TrEMBL record:
Keywords for this protein: Antibiotic resistance, ATP-binding, Cell membrane, Membrane, Nucleotide-binding, Translocase, Transport
Subcellular location: Cell membrane
Family affiliation: Belongs to the ABC transporter superfamily. Drug exporter-1 (DrugE1) (TC 3.A.1.105) family.
Protein known as: ABC-2 type transport system ATP-binding protein
Length: 331
């Protein structure tokens, strides 16, 4: 059974010549008890889609059900069953961390005693117990982010929407959050995750949906998506840019002319069907040609390779332009 189901979702901002279609007919299903990763470049419409699914924006067309409830006709029912952590910390900096969580608990209609108990549990879980009685003015950006995430878990929601949840977190805090997400799924929760970190989707998502220009362009498991662009690859970083042409000729010979070259990083990449034997031969050929290299490796395709193949761009860390417009429209 699907916890989230959307058909033909459309959202346009502006009118006339200035109209921007942030989401242009997205179909999406998220089975119960799974993590689905929503990936896309800047302006793809990821956050706009999440805002429609969480009742913060009304779609211009299409239909979406969350936990069996229509997001337009039954918004209160949807809100009672979901948790949402957006890209920016939705907390009050004049209150302490404990007071913020207590307030969220009360807004979710917990008793004062229940809200206090839940706040204590979450402060401990997110390594904020020592800072719980400090005002948020004294918190670092990462601490505020963790508190915001804790607030989305105040009532153990059945369905959790995480919109770039680890943005601004240090690597250790990011791994801690991954553990929290896995724990929630083990407890039966369903999670829709948008992220700018492709390794995050690779590590957490049961299924991945890639959107670009407001439309779904690919869907599958991480392994299925990686399989679309072939097998192993040889990756070479030349020491001097002037050696790049020679290295490219050698790599083209080994791959039948399929060398991909990044002039900025001096990195050249080619597919290989001969594995370590092909790597050894390329090393010999480069050495004979006098090409000095800084690095060479044999690796499997990554989600970043998939991302570039599908969208023509690397994943970016800036806020989506169309979704920024959505935020202004919703405020």
């Amino acid at each position: 059974m699907n916890a989230i189901s959307a058909e033909g979702l459309v959202k346009t901002f502006g009118t006339g010549d200035k109209a921007v279609k942030a989401v242009g007919g997205v179909d999406l299903t998220v089975p119960e008890g799974t993590v689905v990763g929503l990936l896309g470049p800047n302006g793809a419409g990821k956050t706009t889609a999440v805002r429609m699914l969480t009742t913060l924006l009304q779609p211009d067309a299409g239909r979406a059900l969350v936990a069996g409830h229509d997001v337009v006709r039954e918004p209160q029912a949807v809100r009672s069953l979901i948790g949402l952590s957006g890209q920016y910390a939705a907390v009050d900096e004049t209150l302490t961390g404990r007071e913020n969580l207590w307030l969220f608990g009360r807004l979710y209609q917990l008793s004062s005693k229940q809200a206090k108990k839940r706040a204590d549990e979450l402060l401990e879980q997110f390594s904020l117990a020592d800072a719980g009685d400090r005002t948020l003015k004294t918190y670092s950006g990462g601490m505020r982010r963790r508190l915001d995430l804790a607030s989305s878990l105040i009532v153990h929601p059945e369905i959790l929407f995480l919109d770039e949840p680890t943005t601004g977190l240090d690597p250790a805090s990011r791994l801690d959050l991954w553990d929290v997400i896995r724990e929630r799924v083990a407890e039966g929760a369903t999670i829709l995750l948008t992220t700018q970190y492709l390794e995050e989707a690779d590590a957490l998502a049961d299924n991945i949906v890639v959107i670009d220009h407001g439309q779904v362009i690919a869907e599958g498991t991480a392994d299925q998506l990686k399989a679309q662009i072939g097998g192993e690859r040889i990756e070479v970083v030349v020491h001097d840019s002037e050696h790049a042409d020679s290295a490219e000729q050698i790599l083209n010979l080994s791959s039948g002319g399929q060398c991909d070259r990044d002039t900025h990083t001096r990195k050249l990449t080619v597919p290989t069907h001969t594995g370590s034997k092909g790597l050894i031969q390329v090393i010999r050929d480069l050495d004979e040609a006098g090409v000095t290299i800084d690095d060479i490796a044999l690796r499997r395709p990554t989600l970043d390779d998939v991302f570039v193949k599908l969208t023509g761009r690397h994943a970016e860390s800036e806020t989506e332009a169309a979704d920024t417009a959505a935020g202004r429209a919703a405020s």
